[in-house]
């Protein structure tokens, strides 16, 4: 059974708040670090569900964001995910909604 907050001393309450803030900051740090993780070619290909050869081709054509350190290719996970998001195809419903808004805006 948990202790009700109103029964805590000031020091116990401060400790509880500090521990909670520390937990949240640690969790945020792990998530942020995870998004900035550098991936090698094999890991990036697996993330994108591409063959390694296809990924090499896309980097050669400068289609996929990447870094080159000597002969080694590196990829930021967050940038790859953003790239995938940017290539999203709109649904017919979204296209119709946009065209309706565009036509209605021109009528005014």
Descriptive account of the structure:
- This protein has 108 residues and is mainly alpha-helical.
- The protein has a domain at 37-86: Arc Repressor Mutant, subunit A (Orthogonal Bundle).
- The protein is 64% helix and 9% strand.
- It has helices spanning 10-35, 41-48, 52-60, 77-86, 92-107, and strands at residues 38-39, 67-69, 72-76.
- The chain has a three-stranded antiparallel beta sheet with strand order 1-3-2.
- A hairpin with a 2-residue loop joins strand 2 and strand 3 (72-76).
- The longest helix has 26 residues, at 10-35.
- The radius of gyration is 24 Å and the shape is flat.
- The model has no long low-confidence stretch (mean pLDDT 86).
